[in-house]
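Notes, p. 3: input format for complexes.
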Amino acid sequence: MDFIRVVDSFTEMSNTRRRLELTEILVSLFGEAGADLKKLVYLIQGKLAPDYEGIELGMADKLLIKGLSLISGRPEKDVEELFIREGDLGLVALQIAGGKSQNTLISQKLTVQYVYDSLIRLAKTKGEGSIRNKIGLFQDLVINSSPGEAMYITRIVSGKLRLGVSDATILDALVKAFADKDQAAGIEEAYNFHPDIGLIAEMLRNGEVSRVLEIGPAPMIPAKVMLAERLHEVRQILEKMGGTASFEYKYDGLRTQIHVKDGEVRIFSRGSEETTRNFPDIVKHTVETFSCTSCILDGEAVPYDSETGELYPFQTVSRRRGRKYDLDAKSKEIPIVVFLFDIIYLDGKELHREPYEARRKILESLFVPDDHFKLASRLVSSDEDDIEKFFEQSISSGCEGIVAKNVSADSVYRAGARGWLWIKLKRDYQSKFEDSLDLVVIGSFGGHGRRKGTYGALLMASYNKESDTFESICKLGTGFTDEVLFNLPRKFEGITSKDKPARVESTMIPDTWFEPVHVLEIIGAEITISPVHSCAYGIIEEGAGLAIRFPRFTGKWREDKTPEDATTTSEIIQMYKLQKKGNVGS
Ligand code: ATP
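Output follows (586 residues plus adenosine-5'-triphosphate):
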């Protein structure tokens, strides 16, 4: 497939925000891609492989400026100035490629395969002379590009393609192109267990839909984790669960998926990010504790004082996650215990379709709890009073509440799904509206007075799963320490956008737009009807959306969450209705 065909579609995509139109553009592109489909799908994501393979592009701006300067014959300083003016190296490349003189135009037509293979070489170039080689490969691509091709190649190479096409939309288009509508849920589930969209695309194109529907968990491939719905009363939970359920402590740490295969251990976070090197102690203890040849364990890692049995707050572990050096010293300082609550694979056997009770039994038989691995405390009960007591016990042990798990025969493990098989109950839901929400930063307003040089407020959004967009819900200006506040402009460098980003819905115009990347935990006083915000616009009231009143940052960056994991618009609607009924806010 010619790369210019892809570029035309990219341009079409950037002219629409409607999910349906985006899907249609993708469907026709996929229909023409032939054997290039797999590579094409990765390029649309701005990637070369699934994240867990660790093949990264993200060439530094400085190197790309050097490359563009060499191509154009213009001094680096000029290219840099152009970059500052345009704010996007893609646009700089567009101008430079547009101004190429005839004799530098080499008429080699770029194909998807050629572009992809060059980018793979570029990403894999390591060691001595690698910088020169990387610049050389980039130059070679741009020299052979039309202006539009140069723009998109530069954006891909810099890790900033940002077409506004989510994985969910790509999957939708793949289903439309190669499968039946009623297979969509099964294909999504396969992707959640094996998040390699290129692989799934290729199998679907080869007519292997039934094989795709069979895909389950596999060791060393991070499965998306199962999530819980939320309710506010034990009684409601028991009703939903059919009278009896297993109630487990809800530990406040880091979701940890541990993979073992032939003595090797890999650890993944809630967002499928590999965190193995941040937890050498967990790796070591896994090898010592589990004698199986392969397994996938699910649990929560919590800092723990083995003398007193006390659990420490999340932040202590969170600091560790980003820490690159001195890990051994750190693990002695903050020992970690992993509370295991699930197992989805053991010694060549997929367990995700086994019921919860059976999985728990297997997990219990696999190890003897000690200071490194424990089983999540649980109570199987149908008695409201006993469950309330268990809830209080969990809070006094330093937990956030409880997670109820369905004990029926069809209580399977649903990767990446938030469903009613697991229901969480947190303390703050029970009293007043202090539900914490995880919202996405989409913009900022300039600071004045004491806040000069940083932002006065951030524009926050919820995630609308149905339309795959981020809808403005409040301006957030409180709860920041000075240190965090003055660091914000640096933190958001590289995600600013000249125009409203593709999947953002907001009639409020901030001074600066941000690509939806960062997720912050906030609490608020209540949810109110708002004529200025886009969250749930027109759903509760005509001509109005929903907003959070008096939002405050809790200090927690939800780095373990992708923007699509943020609180959804339908959750906000549900909370608003509960609040109106008086269940919350009284
Ligand atoms: P929150 O922001 O409340 O932590 P979340 O959005 O990260 O929630 P939820 O599905 O709402 O995720 O809540 C489940 C989370 O609770 C899991 O991701 C996990 O990190 C944590 N957790 C702690 N203990 C348990 C347990 N026993 N079973 C399941 N999840 C648990």
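The CA atoms of residues 460 and 474 lie 5 Å apart.
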